[in-house]
């Protein structure tokens, strides 16, 4: 059937194209000439077999798609709360009112550049863009909205996660002393377990007594970052620490929340640094010497995973180490594998 053209009350022209085996498509134009031109191009593409009806992508805004994603996808993720906050930020952005079809790589490249200019880290920018990229993929593959993913066409900022921070000589003793002064009694055993087992923060906080075997010297981790459970060996120090802990009713090994851990850790490290600086002043060190001294500075909780993995690396072969840390790729293990040069030198003796 040929295209039909109807003049609307506002003097605009609606073009409607009907072809057997294809959905009826229509669009309105200010002139009949423009309507006819559009209709011819649609008919030509239908005859050629490369026409895709993008009306759904045209009428679906980014905000509409985000609402659906929040309802159907986000609740099933471990990081649901964080992702929801990111998506709500997108929903309040200028791009939220733009249709999926109209969004371009340029829109997201501009977002990337503005965030970089604001000093936002590469990792955070990638996390901001990740759910939107997944949203486009789902829209095209499962939601029946034919639209390309514009984020796949831009260059994402490269992450520099190659931190090699390990505990300095004398640092662990000072940290333990500071943690003993914390009102929260669980932060010290959490620190020891992190250094001895290389468990991630979330893994140690979710560890249950029912999954710990002091007899077999193992702990079974179920809720891991990559979704695969694993069983890790426990060192003598880890076993000693665990054996001294009381068992809670709820079954958790560490009665500690993430926020409490972060807060207690931050306060303890600051307090330890202040005490160290006082000692340096008494020892006659200058302000410049104290300022350049790295003791207890730039030390994150996640660095303890580096520390723990490096300690285990001295005892296990690479394939064994991967089973303990839970990494699927040896390249990822190398991010955490940082033996001291002096330790490597001893192996040459």
From TrEMBL:
Q: What Pfam families does the entry give? A: Phage_integrase
Gene Ontology biological process: DNA integration; DNA recombination
| One function term, GO molecular function aspect | DNA binding
Q: Is-annotated flag, keyword DNA-binding?
A: yes
Which Gene3D superfamilies does the entry link to? Answer: 1.10.150.130, Intergrase catalytic core
Q: Which UniProt keywords apply?
A: DNA recombination, DNA-binding
Instruction: List the SUPFAM superfamilies.
Output: DNA breaking-rejoining enzymes
Which residues does the UniProt record annotate as the domain Tyr recombinase?
163-349
Q: What is this protein called?
A: Phage integrase family protein
The species is mine drainage metagenome
Read off the lineage from the record.
unclassified sequences, metagenomes, ecological metagenomes
